[in-house]
Amino acid sequence: MAENVASGRRCYYYKAVIRAQERKGQSKMMPRKRLHCFGSSCQLTVSATPGEAARLFDLALTELSRIEAKFSVYDAGSVISRVNQAAGTGSSTELDSEARSLFDFVAALWKESNHLFDPTTRLLQDCYDDNGRLKATEQQIKAMVSLVGWNKLQLDSDGAYLPEKGMLIDLNSCIRPYALDTVRKRLVKEGVEHALLELDHDAVTIGKQADGANWLLGLRHPHGRRTAINRVKLNNRGFAMRGDFERRITFDGESFGRGLSPVDGFPVPGMLSVSVIADTCLNACSAASIARLKTEQAAVNWLDRLGLPWMAIDRQLKCHGPLAPK
């Protein structure tokens, strides 16, 4: 049967591979719809009749839009934006149970990563231009680093509060996989047995495809043509990639990923990108996020101990891990 590789942005190095959906005599089709949320294209493929699929698409978009409006740093009215706007004012932003659970999740990542996973480093990204070149002076970097530190965030019964004016937090890298997992739960509750949902560098599936075929991801090698060189199964699981080998930072003549150290504001000498498959998209995100902030060998050792399928690309553009091409 012919296969159709879903298109994606240039920075992707994986693409979902979806088998041709229409087969003679097949009672159910696999309608697909592109949605737009979190500033990215989101694609949902679901096994349902056209009328039922339209209802499920609306349900998914409603839930994604709710989470985006509530938590995206790019939405001025979101919880995260209100926390940022109130930095240094002495005013806390109220958190409901959903928001608190997400803050607790991020705090756990911060602790597990030895404090390198730090959403307050969003401020440091302004030190580098779009091509990854340093544009800030050493004095400017030091000034920005003084405003960095997840441990400075105050969480109490009143809510969340950043004590210093100019501090920022950005939880989008965690919110996106959370949104996919949330939609996945809603679709399962609606009786969906076969679905694929993709958003930016994250993906999650329900079961297999309706005809029994596997959901596949195509992993692309950093050298050579922009084509998939290894395909991996993603049945009833979540996928996350963190980092991007195509958008590197050049510093002192060396290539680095865009993960910045909360200690000095400079790039972490770790993997350029890490991809992980886990039971949920959020768990895959956790593993990939922590691994890319470790030194290269430490990341390999840590990922091996986790026992999850993974692939990492180092600073010399070499691939590592069980999902790497043989």
Attribute tags:
single chain, 326 residues, alpha+beta, T-fold, eight-stranded antiparallel beta sheet, 16 strands, globular
Describe the protein's architecture and organization.
With 326 residues, this protein is α+β, with helices and mostly antiparallel strands. The protein has 2 domains: 3-62 and 176-320, ApbE-like domains (T-fold, Roll), CATH 3.10.520; 79-144 and 151-172, ApbE-like superfamily (T-fold, Orthogonal Bundle), CATH 1.10.3980. Helices cover 29% and strands 22% of the residues. It has 7 helices and 16 strands. The strands form 4 sheets. An 8-stranded antiparallel β-sheet has the order 3-4-7-8-11-14-15-16. Strands 1-2-9-10 form a 4-stranded antiparallel β-sheet, with no helix packed on it. Strands 5-6 form a two-stranded antiparallel sheet. A hairpin with a 2-residue loop joins strand 12 (249-251) and strand 13 (254-256). Helix 1 packs antiparallel against helix 5 (172-189) and helix 5 (172-189) packs antiparallel against helix 6 (281-291). The two termini are 25 Å apart. The relative contact order is 0.14. The model is unreliable at 1-28 (pLDDT under 50). InterPro entries: ApbE (IPR024932), ApbE-like_sf (IPR003374). This is FAD:protein FMN transferase. Its EC number is 2.7.1.180.
